[in-house]
Amino acid sequence: MKNLNGFPVNRIVILTGAGVSAESGLATFRDSDGLWEKHDPMQIATPEAFARDPELVYRFYNARRRQLRDVVPNDAHRALAQLQAAFGADVFLITQNVDDLHERGGSKQVCHMHGELNSMLCRACCQAQAVSGDYDGRSRCPECGEQGTLRPDIVWFGEVPYHMETIFQRLRRCDLFVAIGTSGVVYPAAGFVQEALAAGARTVEINKEVSEVAGFFHEQRCGTATREVAALVAELLDN
Ligand code: APR
């Protein structure tokens, strides 16, 4: 049995957003220098955008996949991996991020609800393929060999996120919910805190600013993810 500020903690659900990877050098979406400041998400991150201009969408995700080679996990990724190593299945990590920094930081369980940059979906054989490098409309599916059928394995606006049943099962059983580096403006992820509250969980938010859903959290830890996540994990490991 762990505890946080005297509250008993047995089952932890963690939700991360772009802010957990910001100190590794990956742009967030809605900060002043964010991705959606430079690109209109409706021209990039929707099925209609891909149908309208697939090469623009391929180029956008190719560039973000290439950038993964230039960045490394930070102390927040490593601290979360330490927590998971210490408490095993009692910790369930959900990320909205499509980068691979949680895995490279040591996390063995990562629930990518919005998909992954290092994966492509084939519309012919419906298989997801682990990929690296660039892809376009001439690329062949490594599984079925069809040409021009691959799309980024990213959950776009208007599509249903992955693993929702598992996520809600875990939210309904947790007694600690921690949101890290997410603005709380995109649902269903932004509503997870309310699900945790309904389950009677203690809710903690780590963010360098106040998020849209800050009012649903018992505790606000305002600061950078590298500093605040390391501190929170140290408290849980010490108790
Ligand atoms: N430490 C802590 N928090 C940080 C840091 C940091 N170093 N840097 C940024 N943040 C916070 C910002 O204050 C903001 O609240 O991270 C959050 C980033 O918010 P967004 O850019 O909106 O990213 P996110 O919440 O992950 O977006 C959710 O929106 O466009 C979709 O699919 C996309 O998964 C994404 C979803």
List the helices and strands and how they pair.
Elements: E1 2-4, E2 7-9, E3 12-16, H1 35-38, H2 41-44, H3 47-52, H4 54-67, H5 75-87, E4 91-95, H6 101-104, E5 111-112, E6 115-122, E7 128-130, E8 150-154, H7 164-171, E9 176-180, H8 192-198, E10 202-207, E11 219-222, H9 225-238
Parallel strand pairs: 3-4, 3-9, 4-5, 9-10, 10-11
Antiparallel strand pairs: 1-2, 6-7, 6-8
Helix pairs in contact: 5-9
The structure holds adenosine-5-diphosphoribose.
Adenosine-5-diphosphoribose (APR) is lined by residues 17-19, 22-23, 28-31, 34, 41, 96, 114, 181-183, 185-186, 207-209, 211, 224-225.
* Distinct ligands: adenosine-5-diphosphoribose
What coarse outline follows from CA principal-axis ratios?
elongated
**Overall average pLDDT:** 96
What value does the Rg take, in angstroms?
18 Å
Report on the structure:
The protein has helices spanning 35-38, 41-44, 47-52, 54-67, 75-87, 101-104, 164-171, 192-198, 225-238; strands spanning 2-4, 7-9, 12-16, 91-95, 111-112, 115-122, 128-130, 150-154, 176-180, 202-207, 219-222. It has 239 residues and is an alpha/beta fold. The strands form three sheets. A six-stranded parallel sheet has the order 5-4-3-9-10-11, sandwiched between helices. Helix 8 (192-198) links the parallel strand 9 (176-180) and strand 10. Helix 5 runs parallel beside helix 9 (225-238). The relative contact order is 0.19. The site of adenosine-5-diphosphoribose has 24 residues, from loops.
